Amino acid sequence: MAAQAGSRGDEQLSTAAEETRELCERLQVEIADLLRHEGADESPDPLSVLTERESEVARLIARDHPSNAELAASLHISEKTVKTHVSNILRKLDISQRSAIGWLLQSNGEQMSALLNRTMSTTKS
Questions:
Q1: Which of 95, 106, 93, 94 is nearest to 64 (CA)?
Q2: Contact of 75 with 56, CB cutoff 8 Å
Q3: Would you list the domain boundaries of the chain?
Q4: Predicted confidence band at 112 (pLDDT cuts at 50, 70, 90)?
Q5: What pLDDT score was predicted for residue 118?
Q6: Residue predicted with more confidence, 101 or 33
């Protein structure tokens, strides 16, 4: 009888150990899924989709709010090229108004710093 009780105890212990192992595996999968989804919720740097020149134009628009003519003069390009850059920026950032460029850059301080660093290193070269 004691042997049978011991055998049932071992069996219960083995079952509990197996259930615990399965629970740990499910927990690991749940944690991995949560971490993946948490990373996906973080918005990627919207400025990473811009070319260096578009980044420079976006920075100038955010900082000084110049007209297309003023941008063209300061960048030594045609007004038509400025309009193309601005259109590309609006499309790539999925915004509809030029004023939103400044808002987007100002609301993302880290992104603005990265943009400034990238633009400044380009203009020094």
A1: 106
A2: yes
A3: 1-42, 46-124
A4: very low
A5: 56
A6: 101
